[in-house]
Amino acid sequence: xxxxxxxPVVAGALMQADGHFMLGSRPAGKPxxxxxxFPGGKVEAGESPYxxxxxxxxxxxxxxVTRATPWxxxxxxxxxxxxxxxxxxxxxxxxxxQPHEGQSFAWQEPGQLSVQPMLPANAPILRALQxxxxxxxxxxxxxxxxxxxxxxxxxxxxxxxxxxxxxxxxEQLAALVGEISQIVHARGGKLIVNADPAWLKGWxxxxxxxxxxxxxxxxxxxxxxxxxxxxxxxxxxxxxxxELELDxxxxxxxxxxxxxxxxxxxGWDGLAALTAPAAPxxxxxxxxxxxxxxxxxxxxxxxxxxxMRAAWQxxxxxx
Length: 319
Description:
Layout: E1 6-14, E2 21-25, E3 36-37, E4 40-42, H1 49-61, E5 64-77, E6 82-94, E7 105-108, H2 123-128, E8 134-137, H3 140-143, H4 145-153, E9 160-163, H5 170-186, E10 190-194, E11 207-210, H6 212-217, E12 227-232, H7 235-243, E13 248-252, H8 267-275, E14 283-286, H9 294-299, E15 304-307
Parallel strand pairs: 1-6, 8-9, 8-15, 9-10, 10-11, 11-12, 12-13, 13-14, 14-15
Antiparallel strand pairs: 1-4, 2-3, 2-7, 5-6
Helix pairs in contact: 4-5
């Protein structure tokens, strides 16, 4: 066991509207010179993590952060130090980044890095940036197969869809997944299925979604899936998903929903409490939410939102 003191560190991912993010190179004279990382630094005595973020980015690149949200928490053990990294996504700032410490900066596209080498602690953070803002959960059991397929066919983005239809047997689910995959993959999206991982061998899927029972029973991350997520309702379940090195978690329910009328919702404060000071893996807030709740979810520490009924409603007509 590593018994070294853990040093609190903050880091900021400057975000552009199209999803591009900024990396900076480590200057000479520091450990890992020339490696690329998210700008930031140590939290000083008496500072909150947010205050440290504002100060570090002002000192390091001459910008003033005006809007940032907590995102991810990672502990990493380097040869020279053990650090707890609190990552923020920075959405707005005043000024243009300038290399105040002799470093270089580069805007990057998720999944398409053009700079190397990368600081070791950042691998899961870079992967998290490939996740979408919104996950769409199927609702065939309520709306019917035709309505869901039609709504999906009308989309012009690259949707990430989770098929969750517990009323279907394996054969019925396979047929539905085949139909949805043709639409999703033709648009460059991703398809994840909430089912027994053993069912999905040979299916046209990109990942598996684990319910609470399957998450609790696992000893290791399911093999052969590019993306693995879990449905969580507590801090313990979040930490378990992180221990298994899963890619994300659905966390809720945040607001009252028709499917859970007897269960008290977390509310926004409850969501923030479960993720504070930052989540151990990317969290999608779920439960009575839609894409319109994205900003609020981010303020409470979520990566994004997962929507079910709202995903398949027709867009309101413009006036």
